[in-house]
Every structure is written in structure tokens, then in C-alpha cells.
Amino acid sequence: MSSSFGAEKELMVNGTAYQIYRLDALENSARLPVSIRILLENLLRHEDGVTVTATDIKAVANWDPQAEPSREIQYRPARVLMQDFTGVPAVVDLAAMRDAMVKLGGNATDINPLQAAELVIDHSVQVDHFGDANAFDLNAEIEFQRNRERYQFLKWGQSGFSSLKVVPPDTGIVHQINLEYLARVVYSEQRDEKLLAFPDTLVGTDSHTTMINGIGVLGWGVGGIEAEASMLGQPISMLVPKVVGVKLVGKLPEGSLATDLVLTIVERLREHGVVGKFVEFYGPAIATMPLGDRATIANMAPEYGATCGLFPVDQETLDYLHLTNRSEDQIALVEAYAKTQGMFHTADSAEAEYSETLEIDLSAIEPSLAGPKRPQDRVALKDAKTQFEHAVEAFNGGESQTVSTNIDGASTKITDGDVVIAAITSCTNTSNPSVMMAAGLLAKKAVESGLTVKPWVKTSLGPGSRVVMQYLEQAGLDKSLDTLGFDLVGYGCTTCIGNSGPLPEEVSKAISDGDLTVTSVLSGNRNFEGRVHAEVRMNYLASPPLVVAYALAGTMNVDLYQDPLGVNTKGEPVFLKDIWPSSKEIAEAISDNLTREGFIASYARLFDGDSRWQSLEAPVGSQFQWDPDSTYIRHPPYFEEISLDPDPITDIEAARCLAWLGDSVTTDHISPAGAIKADSPAGEYLNELGVKADEFNSYGSRRGNHEVMMRGTFANIRLRNRLLPDSEGGVTRHLPSGDEMSIYDAAMRYKEESVPVIVIAGKEYGSGSSRDWAAKGPALQGVRAVIAESYERIHRTNLVCMGILPLQFLPGESAESLGLTGEERFFIPDPGDQTVHRISVMAKSDKGSEKEFSVTVRIDTPNEVDYFKHGGILHYVLRKMASENSK
């Protein structure tokens, strides 16, 4: 397709001719932030006069940094990235859409990804075994036993859908593999007999997809539903955002690490307010910042609330591409393209025009943690003991509890505040050689000093790629970590996503007997309640070396600056400062042991898998043969009664409140990913089907079974429903009877009574993971609308994409300020065809009083109006494709 602006030009690189769409064909484009330039190029390349017009392109070229977002564009990323927890339900939906397409008179293969889709299996390994040289093999064996059926299904998907590549389990974490291997930085493909080159862009079914922003690739998390539509050729409808420029100056002081920096950035940007905005990093500190540090910062964009956290392409980017064994031709293309398009950052690069700016001085960064239940709640290490003492009072009322127990034949005591999980985990940090080497060096010095980990601490090391173990082994640091119990447990997300596995029986019993408030310390990115482990109430994020240090201390009730970690072989106290590695030691360890050859060896057979994967038999055929007895993969009900024409949207009449929730309710609260309790609705369902409790696996692993997932919706044991203020967990009151029951049972009872239901919530509803089941589950429970004070970006989109109406209280108003009790019957009119606008909601009490209040309809774009009217985005896409094929 030709551009209205004459932007098509040839770019010669090492004798190969590429066609590119030059941004300098448009006036003023050089002033734009890089992220807006990437969007602009995307529009130039896809101009068709219908979905992308010359007017759209001019509007983005003339982007006003101070204007409120109002221009809707149709954005087409180059590829889609998935992990298995979100990937399995996505492939389940695509398989169900094939069946529906056949029913509507089309061909099954009409449902097929139209662009590159890559799925990395990383969310399924659990830490069943730890502190053992054989832990990796034992955990991998259990993983395959639990997930054989899911893996067979994914193998079918890889053969059944073109353009879908699957990275087998026990290889690494999706975002680290994307960073080290999959990302192109500049993409190239054949189109109309020409070789096009353009920025590598992606959306991913995991909120931490933003990690790839560290290498200069624009990408962010979306719900699985939206990703499926994108794979099928549906553009992503979005408003051109504001861009916040974060200027980085100075240099990290001795003793501070990238983890400390990112936790500070999370705190600062949450305070500033960047939800729904792009963030770009710039400034003099960029030039000396290793790419690993950039990736760590970009990874936590969801935690600071931004859509993305983009770093520029520069010489460090090119050096990293060489280190990670990208081809020399690819590196040359990246350099030539970035320089031609004005996207290559140097010390002389002019500052872009940003909507807002703030400055962060790296020299002021101090060692930090975040917790006990939100990643933005940073606390300086020097204040950690005092902060813990205040925080624990909320759990134990200021009365510390202690329980005596016996571990490995020795008597010991476990007390409130003791660390029972210490996990080096998550791509956030394991992708960063500096913090991993720091952990290894600290472990080496600890072992040499005769220090040991406390017996009640469950230790684990779960790197994001095999490269990590390669350089730790080469440096000889793996043995020290092993000695302290940080043996390799798996290449996957493990503890960071709640796959921490069971605590030792003696520890678990002590916690239960004493109702202890114990803690975890992990190098992850989230520490929401109930996420890391159901028995652990307080969770702290920290750098890998601090994880090791707290494992040695065994408690959060310690001042690591003043209190010793233990005593050496001479009986002398050993302090953290005695074993903390210097920046020089860390740099030398990296220089000597992080090599291109290590990446070559680690990625030589990425898609092959081990013998377990290779021997796995998978079904074949364009349509999946559903097993009605399966407890993992079931045909979802979304398209069972679909017709070419959608039913009209109706008013919501006399709806009851299923749950009234507070602030910062995460997608983990709405749809947990961790262990399934035996006495939960999901556990009871599996038990009725003959599944033993020790084979329940996790909610995340059963996302291909809607029966489990709808029962698991609002089942988080830490959920607080104000309809039952004295209870905790997934319980509610049925109205008007007042009967107390699980939220799932109440939802089914309302369905039997033909009563629609809504959810009321506070601020930041749906924060956290890009979990489409946090919208799918409520939809299957009959939730028609959510009324919240504010939403996180991805979850609001997911609600619309599942046909749930997102409504927002007016600024300064809330359920409390309006005097609502949650016991009313709610009347909500059809929102019509408009985007963001106000409607009136009527709340009628059973005693006859009425209260009318206005809310904002958060259907933000015209495309979303269409999705909502069709009952969801997949229904819209399916009907559109079926209609086109019938012509």
C-alpha cells in the first residue's frame, strides 16, 4: 500500500535493499518521543484509507504533548507473545472459534494467526523440591506429570496453527527469552515482493511484556482476549497517550543495585501518576547504564502504572545484541534503521517534547525493599526493621507469637516475622547479571565465613534462562549458592507467580498452630496478598543478594546495618557489610564470565525441548478433539449459541451486588493463580470428578477449564468483601435472603433466579497481572457491570472485551460517599453508541428508598463500543470473519 506522504524509501544495509517508511517525510516528527514515532511509523506503513487514514497520520505527526488523549488509532504490532498460563486459554479460545466458524458455515482454518505468535511455557513449574542437587530434575518430572494434558494441547496448537511457535518448558521465562533471543529490535518481512524493515513491536499476554522496552522495543501487556483478536488481524484500538519523560542523572552509589533503583522508580512514578501513559527514559545516566539494568526498570512498568517504560536504542543496545548472538546482519540493520529514523540515542541527541517530565538522581538511590503487600511501598533497608514492626501490628495486634517445633531432628522456634520463603526468582532480576553475580559473590563470602541459612527458610533459585546458570557455574558461584540451599529448582517463574510449592510440614503446622504472621523475601516484581503463598501474610521484594542475606538472618525483625547475620567459625559476629560484594568485584565477575559463547550454547536448541517434551504425543487435525472427561482442557461456552447477528444490548434491571470490594483489588484477588484449596468451590468440583487434592495443581494451570476458573473467581483467601466485613476470602451474602455463601454459589443462585449481578469497587480495580480470567470469570458468573472509582488499563479493556460494562464513579465520589450499602437493587441503562460519557444509575433499597447517581461509561473508543455491543471482542471478530467469508 502506498503512502500519501511519499514516505517509502530504500535502505541499503550490507548489500540488502529494504523498504522503509521514513519519518522525515512528515514535518516536526523529530521532536516526537521515540514511542510516538514508533506509533507514527506503524500508521504510515498500514495506511489504507479505511482503518488508517492520512488524517490519522497527520494527527499523530502533530501530537500535542499537553492535550488530553482523544485521537483513536488502529495499531498493529508485529507479533504477539504469550506464556502458558495465558497462552493455554488463548489457544482454547482459538480452537473453540474454529468450531464456531464451521457452525457459521466457514472453514476451521479461517481461524489462524496472521502474524508471528510466540508462546513460552514458563508458568507451570512449582517448587516442590528445594535445597537439593536433584531439585531441578525432580520438579521438572512432577511438572510434566501434572501438565501432560496441557502440553499435549499446546503441541497440537503449534502444529494446528501456522505462525505459532512454542518454546518448551524448563527453558526459561518468557520475557528473558524475549530479551535474550526472540526480540529483533528491527523487524523485516516480505510484502508485495519487497523486503520491509520496521520497528519490532509486540503485545503480550503478560503484563511484564514491558521488559522488552529495555532493548528499545515497544511492547506492553494486553489481556489474552485482545491478544487473540490481534493474532487474527484485528488492530488494537487505542488512544494516542501522553508521554512522561523520566530523566536519569548521576550514578548508582557503592552498595546500591538496579533492584534498589527500580523500587525507587516504582515509588516515584506511582506518586507522580502515570497510569494510561507511556514512559520514556532519557538523560546522561543512560549512556553508562547496562542493558540488564534497563530491562529491570522496564520490566516493572506495570508496577509503576505505565503502559510502557521505553529506553532508546544506542551503542549499549548494539553491544548487547552482539553479546546475545544476534547475527551481524541483524545488528547492522538495527543500527542503520535507528540512525536513519532518528531513533539512535547519543550524547548529542536532542531532548524530545514530553507531556510531563521528572528527574531521578541515581546517586541518591539507597538499598531498599518493598512491602509487605504492594510493590510501590518502598522502604529503605536502614528503616526495614522499624517499618516491619509497625506493619506486623496490623496482623498480630502488637502481640508477637512463637511456636516451638522440630526441623530435621533439631528443636527450634518460629516467630512472627520469620522468613519462611527466600526466593531468587523472576525475570525482573534474574535477567540482570549484576544482581545475580552479587548474590553469588555474597553467598561465597557467607560460606567462607561459616554462615548458614536458618532451618525454617525455604530457599530456591529459579533463573529466567539457562544463561544464568552457565555464567554462575563458570564463575564458580553456583556451589556457594547450593551450599546455602539456593539450588536450581527450575527455569521458570516459580515463586514470583505463586508457584512456591508447599512449605515443609513442620513449618506449615507451626504457622497454623500459632496463627503466625510469617514473611517471604523474593527478587520478584509483585507481593500482593495471597500471591506468593497462602500461609505467608507479609511479602517483601528485594535484590537477589538481599534475599540471600535475609535467608541467613531468618527474620524480617532485624536491622541488617546493626545486627549480625550470624557468627563465623571463630565465634565472631558477621555483618552484612562484611560479605557485601563491591561494585568492582561484581563488574570483574561479569567481565570474566558473561560471554557470547554462553548465549550460543544456552540457545542452540531453544525449540527442541528435553526428552520429555520430544516424546510427548499430541493430536493432529485442524479442529481439536475435545475430551469431555478432561479436567484441564474443556470446550468453553462463549460461542455455543452464537449467530451472525448479535442480540441487542438491554438495560440492567434490578441487579444485585455480588461483591463490594475496596481499593487496590488486583487481578490476583479476582482470579488467583496459585494453589486450589480442597474446601473451595473449585476444589470441591475437582474432588467430585475424582481428582485427588495433591493433583489439583494450580488455578493458573487449569485456565483451559472454565468450570474450574469460574469457581475460582473471587476465591482469593485474602479477598475482603464489605457485604461480609468480618470475613476474609471468597464469600458474600445472597440478597435479599442474607444467606452467607461462597461468591460462586451466590452467583449461580442469582442466575437461577434470573437476577443480574454487578461488582462495586474502589480505586485501582484490576491492578496487577494482565489476567483475562479476571474478566472471563465474572462474565461466566453473570456479572453485567462493574462500578469502580478507577481501573487499571488492561483490566478495564478486558472487561469490555468480555461484554462487561465498566462504569466509574465521578471524581471525588465513591460508594461510601454516596451512602450506598451494597444491598440495593441497581438499575443501569443501555450505554448506547457513545464512548466516554455519563449515565445515571438508580439504586433502590428493599425498604423503598431510592438514590440516583451519575457514573462515567468507560468504553473508551468506538471499536470498544462495537465489541461491547457484540458481547465481546472475540464474538465481534468471529462474526466479522464469518460474514466476510459468506460474501
Automatic annotation (TrEMBL):
Keyword Phosphoprotein applies: no
Boundaries of every Aconitase/3-isopropylmalate dehydratase large subunit alpha/beta/alpha domain copy: 64-554
Family matches, as InterPro entries: AcnA_IRP_Swivel, Acnase/IPM_dHydase_lsu_aba_1/3, Acoase/IPM_deHydtase_lsu_aba, Aconitase/3IPM_dehydase_swvl, Aconitase/IRP2, Aconitase_4Fe-4S_BS, Aconitase_4Fe-4S_dom, AconitaseA/IPMdHydase_ssu_swvl
One Gene Ontology MF term: RNA binding
Catalytic reaction list: (2S,3R)-3-hydroxybutane-1,2,3-tricarboxylate = 2-methyl-cis-aconitate + H2O; citrate = D-threo-isocitrate
Keywords for the protein's UniProt record, in alphabetical order: 4Fe-4S, Iron, Iron-sulfur, Lyase, Metal-binding, RNA-binding, Tricarboxylic acid cycle
Pathway recorded for this protein: Organic acid metabolism; propanoate degradation; Carbohydrate metabolism; tricarboxylic acid cycle; isocitrate from oxaloacetate: step 2/2
GO biological process, one term: tricarboxylic acid cycle
Protein origin, superkingdom: Bacteria
Co-factor requirement: [4Fe-4S] cluster
Residue ranges of domain Aconitase A/isopropylmalate dehydratase small subunit swivel in the record: 684-810
Keyword RNA-binding set for record: yes
Enzyme Commission number: 4.2.1.3
Known role: Catalyzes the isomerization of citrate to isocitrate via cis-aconitate.
Similarity field: Belongs to the aconitase/IPM isomerase family.
Subunit-level organization: Monomer.
Official protein name in the record: Aconitate hydratase
